[in-house]
Structures are given as structure tokens and as C-alpha cells.
Specification:
- The protein has about 80 residues and is α+β, with helices and mostly antiparallel strands.
- About 35% of the residues lie in helices and about 25% in strands.
- It contains three helices and four strands; from the N terminus they run E-H-H-E-E-E-H.
- Strands 2-1-3-4 form a four-stranded mixed sheet.
- A hairpin with a 2-residue loop joins strand 3 and strand 4.
- The longest helix is centred in the N-terminal third of the chain and has 14 residues.
Length: about 80
């Protein structure tokens, strides 16, 4: 599985760094480093929405630092 997190300036202001570090922690805690590849991307073109743009494979989501754990549970783990 590939998870791409926008690290462009708009998403950075919305908490991209926190989203990245939280996902890294959750992946490590679940021992999923071999199954999930994290990568960064600059602008995904959705700067006006609330939250950081995050793609799981090719599906786009909007994640905030406050809901990253729920996103991981609902959208990442269920796809494994």
C-alpha cells in the first residue's frame, strides 16, 4: 500500500508534519513498515478543503492532526 501525503505550503499550514509523524508512529506500532510505504508530494490541487490531502493508493482523503488515528483505523487498516 502506498500513502502519499501533501507537504505543500497549504497542507503544511494545516498540519502535514503532524499527520506524517502520526502515520509513521501508527505504522510502526502496528508493525506494518513492510506493507505500507509513505511518501510526500507537493500540491495535490485541493488547497481549499479542510485538512491535509492524503492519498491511499489512488483514493484521496482529507486528514487533520485530530483525526489521523481514526483515518488510519477506518481507511488504512481496512484496506490491508
Amino acid at each position: 500500500m502506498e500513502i502519499t501525503i501533501c507537504i505543500g505550503s497549504s497542507c503544511h499550514m494545516k498540519g502535514a508534519r503532524t499527520v506524517v509523524s502520526s502515520l509513521e508512529k501508527l505504522i510502526t506500532e502496528q508493525d506494518l513498515k513492510e506493507q505500507i510505504h509513505l511518501k510526500g508530494s507537493f500540491c495535490m490541487g485541493k488547497c481549499s478543503v479542510e485538512g491535509v490531502s492524503v492519498k491511499v493508493n489512488d483514493e484521496l482523503f482529507y486528514v487533520t492532526p485530530e483525526n489521523v488515528a481514526q483515518f488510519f483505523q477506518d481507511e488504512v487498516l481496512r484496506r490491508l
